[in-house]
Please model this.
Amino acid sequence: MESSSCAMLPADANPFATRWTRPGAIDYLFPPGQSAAALVDRLERQNWQGQIVGPHGSGKTTLLLTLLPLLAARRNVIHVRLAGGQRRLSFSPDSWRDGDNCKQLVVDGFEQLRPWTRARLKHTYRGRMSGLLVTAHRDLGLPELYSTDVPLEMACRVVAALPPEANRVISERDVAECLTRHAGNMREVLFALYDVFEQRRNTSDGSVAT
Amino acid sequence: MEPLISVALRDGKRVYHPGDTLTCEYQIDGVARDEIQAIEASVLWHTEGKGDEDLGVHYFERHTVGEVNGGDLRALRRLETRLPNSPLSYLGVVVKIRWCVRVRVFLRRGKDVVVQHPFQLGDVPAVVLEQVEQEE
Model:
């Protein structure tokens, strides 16, 4: 019987496809001395209040998804991801106020909520028994937990974490050029490298630019 | 211990056409009987590319411990389904459409293991970039 594994990359696959690069497919890559566990400890020291701030495509959602399993082990987490111009929560903030302790509301894309809703959430989820962790592109008045950005070294580490075919075809120079062109937006860098990979895969040897 | 999941298409066939019957056998091994909670097998397509991914399940079956005599889900099973007219497998530049048989084994403590066995539906030729550039 022939068998195949989900982890295997088909021969004609592009390792920069969303399947392998979307937030959550690769854990957030911390600089030396930092870790997900250390950040959760820091969040606890901040009374479970915190914001992850960074520009578009800098890894905020990826970082959040890396923290969530650790958070869920210690807190009752509700994770809300606001996307596509969504400006409302699907539940009333007050409905969650009473009941269990250790409640942790996690909002990805906090600034998409209206200022009044943000203020209400900050007021509701403070104190020892509840917490609020958010991502945003700018300071929204919560204690800073982490600031994301994408230096070249980190971008190269992301590419190195992809299936090996990516590193055979794409060089560090390719990554650097895309990173400059897209002003540090790693999501756009990966999209651009998808195209570069498609162009090169059809050459005889898929050679790497030097 | 990680279970060994074997998936085989009948006659080792890799290319099918709309209306063909796909027959597949799958079996779980290398794991204790009471470790397995359930098995799901599906025949599905999914897109792959730069944007959001799409997925469609054409066939699905689920087996749980309670419904099986002796509670042993490791036995060889066979699924059979008639394949639809679309979407056909497609290897484009921006998007690819892939078909596969997917077997997911649910283990104790919430863990699950997935194996995918790809096949091709239809015979749409793969797009090569030179061809795209000429067309533009």
Observations:
- Chain A touches chain B through 20 residues (CB under 8 Å).
